[in-house]
Amino acid sequence: MSSRTSPISQPITIRRAVARDAKRLTRLVRGSGAYEGKYAAAVAGYRVGPDYIEAHRAFVAVGADEHGGRVLGFYSLVLAPPELDLLFVADDVQGRGIGRLLVAHMQSEARAAGLDRVKVVSHLPAEGFYHRAGAVRIGTALANPPAVPWDRPEFEFRVSSE
Question: What pLDDT sits at residue 1?
């Protein structure tokens, strides 16, 4: 198994994002390999600011030991209307279960907030991930030029009441 697809061997902690995480989260978004080439313009000036973190339920996955407390990924859950607004995992740790961990955490947060569904408008290269993570395709979000000049798949996570 290559290091890109081997599971993380050290514990991962998911914690609420705080204002001081803003620059690291912005770097994750702007540096994402999924937004290279024709997709680069979509994140070129994107910023996850302290105000965004305070206004949304944003959580970060932090690696222990092996990654020295580094932010490995994050997500943001909007409650009204229920939507997974952002979900990013650092390129060099993708394929190791961090995205699935973040999705499971998001579903737990959604459940605690009384939600039964959470929509996500997927970036095209992430479509397979959302499908594998259990989201169901519900439609297509039409292009919104100039910000997003392509159609995107819409998914929905159904949140069980457990």
Answer: 31
